[in-house]
């Protein structure tokens, strides 16, 4: 399976935890981005099937990344994984048709459930 995944979070620990929550078959094709600017640069140069995206990051936050994905018409499924659980942030994410919003720490069962429900795994 050639399913490319990017995990974007400013925390290296959070990125590693998110990668470990992916099904084993998807863990070998993961790239990492330390902030939204890095994620957008990766998306501009290659195709990804799935983006696990944090919201609160320096330089370029997750909402800005979602805005740019829409504006640039990148075709990538996005699953938001964030510690920012404010209702207004969750509401802001809904307008982007993401796969879902998972609170940190991320749970492998929830990730697999969402990917399975969308036919991605």
How is this structure best described in words?
This protein is an alpha/beta fold. The protein has a single domain (5-117), classed as Response regulator (Rossmann fold, 3-Layer(aba) Sandwich), CATH 3.40.50.2300. Helix content is 40%, strand content 18%. It has 5 helices and 5 strands, in the order E-H-E-H-E-H-E-H-E-H. The protein has helices at residues 12-21, 36-45, 62-72, 87-94, 108-117; strands at 5-8, 30-33, 50-53, 77-82, 100-103. A 5-stranded parallel beta sheet has the order 2-1-3-4-5, with helices on both faces. The chain is globular and about 30 Å long. It starts with a strand and ends with a helix. The mean pLDDT is 93.
Please describe the topology of this protein:
Layout (H helix, E strand, L loop, with lengths): L4 E4 L3 H10 L8 E4 L2 H10 L4 E4 L8 H11 L4 E6 L4 H8 L5 E4 L4 H10 L4
Parallel strand pairs: 1-2, 1-3, 3-4, 4-5
What topology, given as strand order, has the largest sheet?
2-1-3-4-5
Mean pLDDT: 93
Dominant shape: globular
Which stretches are poorly predicted, pLDDT < 50 over at least 5 residues? none
Number-wise, the strands total 5
CATH superfamily: Response regulator
Strand content: 15-25%
Characterize the largest beta sheet: strand count, sense, and whether it forms a barrel: 5 strands, parallel
Compressed to H and E, one letter per element, the order equals: EHEHEHEHEH
Structural classification: alpha/beta
Question: What percentage of residues falls in helices of 4 or more residues?
Answer: 40-55%
Q: Can you count the helices?
A: 5
Assigned CATH class: Alpha Beta
Number of domains: 1
Tell me which CATH architecture applies here. 3-Layer(aba) Sandwich
CATH topology: Rossmann fold
First and last CA, distance = 10 Å
Q: Write down the Rg.
A: 13 Å
């Amino acid at each position: 399976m050639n399913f490319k995944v990017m995990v974007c979070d400013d925390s290296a620990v959070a990125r590693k935890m998110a990668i470990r929550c992916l099904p084993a078959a998807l863990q070998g094709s993961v790239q990492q981005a330390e902030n939204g600017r890095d994620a957008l640069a990766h998306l501009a140069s290659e195709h990804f099937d799935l983006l696990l995206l944090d919201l609160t990051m320096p330089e370029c936050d997750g909402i800005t990344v979602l805005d740019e994905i829409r504006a640039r018409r990148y075709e990538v499924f996005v699953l938001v994984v964030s510690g920012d659980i404010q209702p207004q942030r969750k509401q802001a994410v809904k307008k982007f048709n993401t796969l879902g919003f998972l609170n940190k720490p991320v749970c492998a069962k929830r990730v697999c459930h969402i990917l399975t429900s969308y036919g991605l795994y």
